[in-house]
Amino acid sequence: MAGFSGGPVVAAAAPPSAAAGQPQAVVALPPVPELMQALAHGRSARARWSAAESLRQHGTAAACAAPALIACLSDEDVDVRVSVVRALGYIGEAALPAIPALQGLLSDSDGGVRWAAADALGNFGHPAAPAVPKLVQALDDEEEDVRGSAASALGKFGQLGLDVAAAIPRMSLLVGVREEKEWHVRRAAAEALGRCGVAAAGAVPQLQGALLDEHPRVRAAVQAALEKISGSAEPACQ
To answer: Which letter, b or e, does each residue of 153-171 get, where b requires 16 or more Cβ atoms within 10 Å of its Cβ?
Structure first.
């Protein structure tokens, strides 16, 4: 796209041949109207994918693009759909009408789409509360990234005080290496339980057992979760 003007400034990806430590070039994102046109009318999947990704980087400044993004949830290219779903999770309240569709995408045949849907729903907070049951189901997804993304979303909900009680037993199991072989999923589950605070008190035995996890980042997340749960259970000072 030529004629870039306005928009946030981001670092462009360095070419593979770039020397390590060299400063990256800085370019401005294309303006939102231009990106909306590329998203709706781009002839190549790459053009549409790139437009959706740039809209995500614009964040809430791209709120006016919500209808265009929602219209592209059925794009024929899976990479475009993933980028569109992710963008919807970053542009704020204007994307709230997409919540039912995103909830449905938790059952999409493509793991990348399911991952992106869980990630996006976690950013919506209270309006996405109806998605909790499907996010709980996603904790058993065959794709590790989907399991981790679902746990993270449920943790965000729990931190906001939403009822995620149905997720606590399953996330408690996910912190154990016997149940979950992928360390980053165990870490995500531990972090999510910590965000839930005292509501996750029932997970304390499993978390204590996970203090011996083989991975240091899991152990750190488990320790932090235990501290948050015990801290939130303490009575306030009189």
So the answer is: bbbbbbbeebebeebbebb
Rounded Cα distance between 62 and 175, Å, is 37
Beta bridge partners of 9: 28
Q: Identify whether the C-beta of residue 78 lies closer than 8 Å to the C-beta of residue 48.
A: no
Q: Supply φ then ψ for residue 128, to 5 degrees.
A: -95, 10
> Residue 201 and residue 206: Cα distance in Å, rounded?
10
Burial (Cβ within 10 Å: 0-12, 13-18, ≥19) of residue 33: exposed
Q: Is residue 72 a contact partner of residue 36, using CB atoms and an 8 Å limit?
A: no
Burial 91-108 (b: 16+ CB within 10 A, else e): bbebbeebbeebbebbeb
Each residue's pLDDT, cut to its tens digit, for the chain (238 residues) gives 333 223 333 433 333 444 445 555 556 899 999 999 999 999 999 999 999 999 999 999 999 999 999 999 999 999 999 999 999 999 999 999 999 999 999 999 999 999 999 999 999 999 999 999 999 999 999 999 999 999 999 999 999 999 999 999 999 999 998 889 999 999 999 999 999 999 999 999 999 999 999 999 999 999 999 999 998 654 433 3
Other Cβ atoms less than 10 A from the Cβ of 127: the count is: 13
Separation between Cα atoms, residue 141 and residue 115, nearest integer Å: 10
CA-to-CA dists, residue 32 to 7, 63, 140, 235, angstroms: 8, 9, 37, 49
Please tell me the total number of residues recorded for the chain in this structure. Answer: 238
Question: How far is residue 55's CA from residue 35's CA, in Å, rounded to a whole number?
Answer: 7
